[in-house]
Amino acid sequence: MHVLYVCTEVFPLLKTGGLADVSAALPHALQQEGAQVTLLLPGFAAVAAGFDPIGQAVRLPARGATTLPAGLGPVWPDGHTVPTLQAGRLRASGQPALLLQAPALFDRPGNPYLDAQGQPWSDNPLRFGWLGWAAALVGTGLVPGLTALGTPPDVVHGHDWHAGLAMAYLHLLKGHGRQAPASVFTVHNLAYQGLCGPEWLGRLGLPPSVFSMQGLEFFGQLSFMKAGLQYADALTTVSPGYAREITGPEQGCGLDGLLRHRQDRLHGILNGVDERVWNPEHDALLSHTFSASDLRGKTLAKAALQTELALQVAPNALLLVVVSRLTEQKGLHLLTEVVDSWVRQGGQLAVLGAGDAGIEDALYRCAQRHPGLMALRLGHDEALAHRLMAGGDAIAVPSRYEPCGLTQLYGLRYGTLPVVRAVGGLADTVTDCRLEAIDDGSATGIVFHDFSAPALHTALQRTLALYRRPDDWAKVQQNAMAQRFGWGDAARRYRRLYQSLRPGAAAATPPHAQPGTASA
Ligand code: ADP
């Protein structure tokens, strides 16, 4: 079983969110399950810097090549060389990968998706159109001279809107008689859709026939996300809860009708924790490691963190942490409304994040009001994220929606109790500390329901109340640390899904599970 895994980020080389963690962990876990996995990544400078090439780069066939159906595939800007594919390995992990080398598209400073003004790069359709096209060409064996892969892939597995057009191009090449591998498309966040105007259709070499309700047209625009959802053989998303939610109008982002239509093809498979990176017992980024049976290191980590962040070094002050993109999705504007009462009651708050200027400003003003009690670090800092996870008592994830969420899983593993809103993967992974759940040993955190500042306030009151009952706190903390959200389980589900898509497998495999069962 050979899988071409098409994505834009991979930890530790390039990371803007959980997608990078998944792209590092899932291919590794799939390999442990016996699959062969090759990553296909855009040649961003950060990725190229950690990539060891093997052999010569191979030119992709240009549009109009006799081997290709006429007119299909993206154009190439005049005056630049046609993209190449370079086979090799990611240096840190040894992971086999293909790099799509196209300096005109990928070699530029700043965020991989957004320009300096925070707007999508104006040529994003071409950039990620080429990613999809490259995936489809590799998948259908149309790249002459690409021998490094050995056998052609059995499955092309694309991730999020950036890889959406791979599914459309594969479908179209199949329509032209090419033998195509099975295709799987995973939604990590349905809200980011990769929309562009219909004028892109020609530049992307997509026939007018696909620009329809039954194709990739979305309210008069071309949607990369919809292309993925429409044309992939199977769809997955990163938790059973989110798989259910996106089939409804509230979380469906306008695509719920299509998702309901394809419900029998949609699977919720929960993400996991990469124990090689997130394990308090041997976390290389911590000066004090610890385990559930010996939490002394956690106490030391808290004191060190308070010192580092210029917070009062108060062992009994409940230290709430946040590690997050600062976007409306994450609900952190709710936190700014409750900070004053939180610190008034003796709580401390430490926030690490980057994102929307408005949320950054609001948090900054809170931190200014509460020196010694609230710390704010703006930017991306992997090592500090680990120190916060270790030194915090609780971690807040008050999201409006949350496809899976990883920080609450890391919080559980590090005994930093998650305070989460009951939505998507958060609801799937955290059990509220109501009294009977403390008694029966199932409580692992604090869960609230309404997306409102008063509801978050009440949840934080309950967090403080639990903290004042050290025996109960310790019980919940032990339950939390005993949870295991391993990648092995997820990898087995993906593998079964791939196998069910093989030609001739339909009769042998059970019908697709309903969304929400997490079964694949
Ligand atoms: P999302 O993918 O929606 O951003 P997840 O919870 O799935 O949310 O994943 C977020 C990942 O990014 C986690 O690994 C988290 O530790 C990390 N992260 C988020 N913000 C920062 C930051 N400012 N610095 C370091 N790591 C961060």
Description of the structure:
By secondary structure, the chain is α/β, with parallel strands linked by helices. The chain folds into two domains: 2-272 and 489-500, Rossmann fold (3-Layer(aba) Sandwich), CATH 3.40.50.2000; 296-482, Rossmann fold. The protein has 19 helices and 19 strands. The protein has helices spanning 18-32, 45-48, 103-106, 124-139, 164-175, 200-203, 224-231, 240-245, 256-261, 296-308, 332-344, 357-369, 382-391, 407-413, 424-429, 435-439, 453-467, 470-482, 487-500, and strands spanning 2-6, 36-42, 51-53, 58-59, 84-90, 96-101, 155-159, 182-187, 195-196, 217-218, 221-223, 234-237, 266-268, 319-326, 348-355, 374-378, 394-397, 417-421, 446-448. Strands 1, 2, 3, 4, 5, 6, 7, 8, 12 and 13 form a ten-stranded mixed beta sheet that branches. A six-stranded parallel beta sheet has the order 16-15-14-17-18-19, with helices on both faces. It has a three-stranded antiparallel beta sheet with strand order 9-11-10. α5 (164-175) packs across α7 (224-231) and α11 packs parallel to α12. It is elongated and about 75 Å long. The two termini are 16 Å apart. The model is unreliable at 507-520 (pLDDT under 50).
